[in-house]
Structures are given as C-alpha cells and as structure tokens.
Design a protein that fits this description.
Strand order of the largest sheet: 5-2-3-6-9
Shape: globular
Strand content: 25-35%
Number of helices: 5
Number of strands: 10
Helix content: 25-40%
Largest sheet: 5 strands, mixed
Order of helices and strands: HEHEEEHEHEEEHEE
Distance between the termini: 39 Å
Amino acid sequence: MAIAKTNAVRLLDRLGIPYELRDYEVDPDDLVAESVARKVGLPPEQVFKTLVVRGDKHGVCLAVVPADCELDLKAIAKATGDKKVDTVPLKEVEPLTGYIRGGVTAMACKKAYPVYLEETAELFDVISVSAGIRGVQVFLAPAGYIRAVDARVASIAKARSE
C-alpha cells in the first residue's frame, strides 16, 4: 500500500532531508505514543510526541518529547522564557496546528510555532515523529528534524510519574 504524502513529508522533500515512512495500524482507543513505538518497532525513547503548549508571555509553542516521558512544564517555561506554561486543551489542538490528536507534528503546521525538542533526541541516529496523520510515522536523523522545524534543543522532558 502506498503511503499518502502529507504536508510534513512534502516539507522534508522540499528541504532535501532524507527520511523513511513507516505506517502502522491505528487503534482510535489507544493513541498513546508508547503504543505507536511498539507498532513501528522502535524503543519508546526514540519515538517523539508533539505537544501543544501555551506560555503566559510568548504564547503557543510545540514541545517534542520521547514517548516514555512527560513534558516538564517548569523546564519548558525556562526554555521559552515564560513564567508559566500549560498544555492547551485538546479542542484547541486542531485549530492551532491543523492536525488531530495522534497525528500532531511540528512539520508544516498551520503556523510556524517555536519548537522545542528534548535534548535526548540527539543521542540517536534516527528518531520517529508523526507524519501529520494517524498511522504514519517519519523516521529521520535528529539533525534533519531540527533543520526542518528550526527546533531549539533543550532538556524539557521528565520521567513519567506513575
């Protein structure tokens, strides 16, 4: 089956950034990034989820963290220069980004928001992020992703609290 080219993939093509697409079976009741990691055959620390957050001073930005971690709100606030940062309500995600939950990516968003990538991404030769639709992941080098979204690299993730 041919995988549809998304705007995110067209951006990578336009920039000449090498990538591989990997499709997977979508379970609408299980959109967690760790399940996606299992389905695409990568450890969860190599699969990155994109979260939409809003700071009190600088507004909306995107935080990209490993599947097995959660966003450290204090750390992202420090990185953005905000006093306080919160994730945006789910109902605002699609209007802000153009993407639905389970398919959010920083690539080819409706608007070019600042992007903050968890620094552990640079430990890997390849990371995986959403291609902009549920069921398709993009595998690419961290440097290619950073260039595609003009990401700032920072320590913004923490171990998930059980």
